Amino acid sequence: MTTPIQQSSRSSTLLGVNALNTAHTAILRCKNDVDTTAGALATSYSAASEDGAEFQRLLQQWDQQAQIILNKLQGLINHLNVTLQKHTSTQTANTDMLRSSQGAADSVYNQLTG
Known about the structure:
The protein is mostly helical.
């Protein structure tokens, strides 16, 4: 049985998850602020006017781009959470293997000295 090599640090991965969550929350807050402001400004801009229509298109484009970024960030967060789960699983498997090996070594020692 080969021992999996741990290639990630739990603490570093947690820092990454926290940073991505912070970025996600900040972008969501900005997106909500823009939506609120857009609603207030929509009453001032006539959608029938050229500048009002352009304003609406700009807000829709920004909203779509912000949503893409939010989705990508969520994907990264999910991926890092899977990495954390695998990290824990690998650590558990390694610990179990060490305990099993220690038990086998103790058994052999006892047989040789007993």
